[in-house]
Write a structure and sequence with these properties.
Layout lengths: L1 E2 L5 E2 L47 H21 L7 H4 L19 H7 L4 H9 L9 H8 L17 H10 L12 H6 L2 H5 L2 H16 L7 H5 L11 H17 L1 H19 L1 H23 L2
Antiparallel strand pairs: 1-2
Length: 301
């Protein structure tokens, strides 16, 4: 437990991500050498991490999702059924890459002063709610997922195992490597998040940041502890949250905390990719196949 000077006792959550609080694997591994340490004062100063080249970018993810929707409707129409619109399927796309504004917790002064630790972009997405459109029936969902029995299409062909979902997946993955999924590779990199916190260079940077915060009247061991204080877990931009977030960003800027954190993250990600070179070569091949399939399908609409 830690106390924040002059206020109540708090318990910080384990980390900004669910995996961040888990102990890193491979304890005792030699720490990879750091590359160039960037000077980070704002999100725009954070270079792209190695992981980003292996996941689908925002535009690629949108094209992939739209192509899936097109194929899904084509399949369902053969069974005399409807399916979701493009707008519905692309309404709330996940960000598979590392968001520079949040991956290393908050680093934008204005955002801290206005919102504390709250993420206004997440709130906007939640406020929009589900995009209105067609809602599939139970029968249609059964055809899509393959659980329907005794169903044939307009040509008299029976529903294949796995339904339209399996058909779409097979078409999207043409030209790729079987068993390798670029849509989930981001999880592999997130598993390094806790390990990087244990890196001696990062630990030293956090110690300096913590000392700076203490001078400003706040007691937190790491930026993750500050970001995940249960006092503002709800996301409310309270005066306390704004005060801590503003001090947090100032201390990061003063000590280049995020620059060092980034450099360590980059080094560990590069080492991980080098160690599994064949695997990541296959990931790139499958990503290329998905991107090409998406373009081909959309051009044919």
């Amino acid at each position: 437990m830690r106390t924040r000077t002059g206020t109540v006792i708090i318990t910080a959550m384990a980390g900004a991500f669910a995996l961040a609080g888990c102990s890193g694997s491979g304890g005792g591994d030699e720490e990879p050498p750091l590359g160039q340490v960037p000077k980070v004062m704002r999100p725009a100063d954070v270079p792209a991490l190695p992981m980003n080249q292996y996941v689908l970018g925002e535009k690629e993810m949108r094209a992939y999702t739209q192509a899936q929707a097109v194929l899904s409707r084509r399949c369902m129409e053969r069974f005399g059924m409807s399916w979701l619109t493009d707008a519905q399927t692309t309404a709330d796309l996940p960000n598979l890459g590392a968001d520079p504004a949040r991956y290393f917790t908050i680093i934008d002064t204005e955002a801290a002063q206005l919102h504390g630790y709250a993420d206004p972009s997440a709130k906007d997405a939640k406020d929009k709610g589900t995009t209105p459109g067609y809602e599939p029936t139970a029968a249609e969902r059964a055809v899509y997922n393959g659980s329907a029995k005794g169903v044939t299409d307009t040509a008299g062909k029976p529903l294949r195992e796995g339904g339209c979902a399996a058909e779409v997946d097979e078409e999207m993955k043409k030209g790729g490597v079987h068993g390798v999924n670029p849509l989930t590779v981001g999880n592999e990199f997130y598993s390094l998040y806790a390990k990087v916190q244990q890196d001696s260079r990062v630990a030293e940077a956090f110690t300096k940041w913590s000392a700076c915060m203490k001078e400003k009247g706040f007691s937190y061991r790491t930026p993750l502890d500050a970001a995940n204080d249960t006092e503002w877990k709800s996301g409310a931009a309270t005066r306390a949250a704004i005060a801590v977030a503003t001090a947090d960003v100032a201390c990061k800027q003063q000590n280049n905390t995020v620059g060092i954190w980034y450099a360590a993250m980059e080094a560990h990600q590069k080492a991980y990719v080098d160690k599994k070179a064949e695997h990541f070569s296959e990931i790139l091949a499958n990503k290329k196949a998905l991107v090409e399939s998406s373009a081909r399908i959309m051009q044919g609409t």
